Structure formats: C-alpha cells, structure tokens
Amino acid sequence: MTRDLADRRGVETEVYGAAEDSRLLAEAAVEAVEPGWTVLDCGTGSGYVGDRLAETRARVIASDLNPHACERARDRGLEAVRGDLLAPFRPGVFDAVAFNPPYLPTDPENEWDDWMEVALSGGESGRAVIEPFLDSVSCALAPGGIVLLLVSSLTGFETLLEYAENRGFEASVVAEESFPFETLSVLRLVR
Amino acid sequence: MKESLMEIVCCPIDKADLELDVEERDGEEIVSGTLTCTECGEVYPIEDGIPNLLPPDMREDATA
C-alpha cells in the first residue's frame, strides 16, 4: 500500500477497493471466525472482507459511513447498515468485529474532502478513527468476543497497542506482512 | 434489510430499541420503511434495503 494519499486518487473516489490490507485482514478473520457467529465487518468499503467472512457461514453484518460502500456490500448479498462505527449496534451482539480502519496520517492542509479521503485518512496521527473505535467496541462484543484490527506501522504500532491495552484488551498479532514503506499487522484483541 | 436485523441494531443516540415500520417488502427483505427510536422518537430511514442509522447531524453529510 502506498503512503501517498494522492497516489490513490483518480480511478476511484467513492469506495476504497480491496487492497493488501483488506486481504491480510480477511485471511486472518476467516481463520478466527466460526460458523454460526454473528460478525461485524466495520467500515466494509468494497465489501471484500465481509464477503470473505460469509464463507465461514457466520452471519455477517457490513457497516459503513459511506452510502456507496453500503450499496456495494448489499450488492454482494451482505446485510448492510449505514452507521458510525459501533453506534447503531446493541450491546453484546457480536462474536467478532473486523475493522480495516482509515489509518494514513494526513496533513490537514492537504485533505480533499471526498469519500476516498474518509476511507483512508486517520487524521494527523493516523489514529483519529481507530481510537474512538477502540473506546466503543468492547460494548458491542458478546462474552468472549474478539476484535480483528488491521494496524499499519505508519499509524504507530506500539502507541496503538498501548492504547488497546489501556482499554482492557489483551492483544496478539495473528498476521503480519511487510511492504517497502510499512508493515501491516492484524491484531486480535480480547477482553 | 432482514427483519432479524432488529435484534442487532439500536438507536445510535441512546441505544434504545427501535420500532420497525415497513413500507415495501420483497420476500424476506424490507426494501423501504422507517426505524423509530422508542425512547427519543428519532426516525431513521430504510432505503433500498439499507437502514441509515446515522444520527441526524451526520445524515446530511456534505461529502459528495
């Protein structure tokens, strides 16, 4: 995945397409999820992770802030909900929540104000969306429920790990892949 | 959306139960209708099978 937001522009401005990060998360999630579970693909984007999760015969809910992303998820046959992170979900309903968050650190002077930016930009720190997610996700988890979170080294792996642990999560790395400019990891978080 | 989604979703503002009103149904799928919060009375639309559970201040997003 490239670090430069500008490189992502041009072809697609409405929905973030599946990339290396989506594939790494999907593989780890498929491995972790069991049939009969209720699973949330939070920030589903193109619906790729949700689609892969559906292979496990879990019930998959796909949510996104972006209406175009919700439409694509629904076109894939997923149950789509438009919403902000965990806000529209009842406490204790999910056995697993998978999240490939917007995580690229972005210069506020250099933002473009379209859906692709919403899908990619994690604010100046890269953690502007991940932190509120970690603040609210445990409430939505069923007892024993897990979170599968994609983390990039660009976002500050250690800082994020500490943030998750301070919110009562035990974290382990279940997948990892290195690219020239970043290392992508999938964190498995349990309470 | 399927009617069974009601077991999973709630009002994004106060986490209260929602009440479903169906306008159009296609088999098991609810194509259009509304979800109304039983606590604060906020009404959330269901359009093209997708419930929009954004709080009202986020619903009219300026992003194209």
From TrEMBL, chain A:
Ranges of residues in domain Methyltransferase: 39-100
Protein known as: Release factor glutamine methyltransferase
Keyword Plastid: no
The gene coding this protein: prmC_2
Family to which the UniProt record says this protein belongs: Belongs to the eukaryotic/archaeal PrmC-related family.
InterPro entries per record: DNA_methylase_N6_adenine_CS, Euk-Arch_PrmC-MTase, Methyltransf_25, PrmC-related, SAM-dependent_MTases_sf
Keyword Methyltransferase carried by entry: yes
Keywords: Methyltransferase, S-adenosyl-L-methionine, Transferase
Organism lineage: Archaea, Methanobacteriati, Methanobacteriota, Stenosarchaea group, Halobacteria
UniProtKB/TrEMBL annotation, chain B:
Name of a matching Pfam family: Trm112p
Gene3D superfamilies assigned: 2.20.25.10
InterPro entries in the record: Trm112-like
SUPFAM superfamilies: Trm112p-like
Entry protein name: Trm112p-like protein
Species lineage: Archaea, Methanobacteriati, Methanobacteriota, Stenosarchaea group, Halobacteria
Species for this entry: Halalkalicoccus paucihalophilus
